[in-house]
Amino acid sequence: MALPKEILPGLFHWTAVHPRIGVPVHSYYLARERVLIDPLLPTPGGLAWLRKHGPPKHILLTNALHSRHSAKLVDAFGCSVWCHRSGLSNLAPELGARPYVPGDRLPGGTRAFRIGTLCPHESAILLPRYKAVAVADGVIRRDKGPLAFVPDSLLVDDPADAPRVKRGLKAAYRRLCGQSFKHLLMAHGTPWLDDGHEALLAWATVRD
Question: What helix, strand, coil percent values describe the chain, rounded to 5?
Fold first, then answer.
């Protein structure tokens, strides 16, 4: 675990080991906009760091399963949590999460984009001010390697469904590449900076 690192002016990234699944996950903070994306607190000093650099006002979830430390952040800062409306039932009622649908303008000048296929609330969040997009679970990156799917055992309940789901996800990412962005911010993987659009389009165009 490490404190956040500024990867673009005003945009911070960090990794932390998820206590339930035991693997590193990735979170982001838009300091000027005071917006967190899929936040898992980086270290025991994470709240103090956020208080110094904000504090945050909003939490955007790319997927309802990414609430992570949202409850702690709501308690500490009174953040508003935003999630695709179909995922609200997956969240604790005390979060008081607000719904969004694809195309909605969200806090910080961001915008929701539908991915779906994997689950109804699988989404991407466009960050026009940063020329970036944040994605959820449909595509991952191990260290600084190529883009990939999660293993089929995590992707689907029935292995026979894997080809259909992969085709649907790649089609959704090709549609996402119709938007303007340079940087690809992963919930599970190292951010792909500068040529993230090209990397995602190339991966989504190759048939499995």
Answer: 30, 25, 40
Task: Please say whether the beta carbons of 12 and 3 come within 8 A.
Answer: no
Return the axis-axis angle of helices 162-176 and 196-205, rounded to nearest 10°.
140
Q: Can you tell me whether residue 2 is helix, strand or coil? A: coil
Q: Are 33 and 22 in contact (CB under 8 A)?
A: no
What the chain holds in terms of domains, given with CATH numbers, is 5-205 (3.60.15.10)
- What are 115-136's pLDDT values in tens digits? 999 999 999 999 999 999 999 9
pTM for the structure as a whole: 0.95
Residue 165 has a CB neighbour count (10 Å cut-off) of 17
For residue 208, the surrounding DSSP H or E stretch is none
Measured between alpha carbons, how far is 63 from 121 in angstroms, rounded to an integer?
6
